[in-house]
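Let's practice the habit of predicting before peeking. Look at the sequence and jot down your guess about where helices and strands might fall. Then scroll down.
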Amino acid sequence: MPKPKSIASIRIRAEVIRLVGLIPEGKFTTYGSIAVHMNVAALHVASVMSRLTEAEAAALPWHRVVSAEGRVSPNMEPELAARQRARLEREGLKLDAQGFILDSDAHFHVVGVRRKIRWSDPASV
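Done guessing? Here is the structure:
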């Protein structure tokens, strides 16, 4: 029987999904930028993103979240990386052959300042 999810993990997942949904077309952010804003590790954000349901992936602009270097992750499955690249390019972003977003400063979406939040505390927002 799978272990039940903690309140903190449920809240973190919901917030990652909310923040990804706010990234405007033609912009991108990084796993780390979302993580800093949320006061969690980038691995938490990446974990949520890698476990999106089909419905969530269809509804969210997941392709607007890239690695810390401002590039399509070289560790991503090639088919998924090609899909991410194509979606970013359709939104007007230009990428080099290695998947780095060119003129990244002009397209970077600032998520916000670091929040002081304790995800396990329901009163903390």
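How did you do? The longest strand covers residues 29-30.
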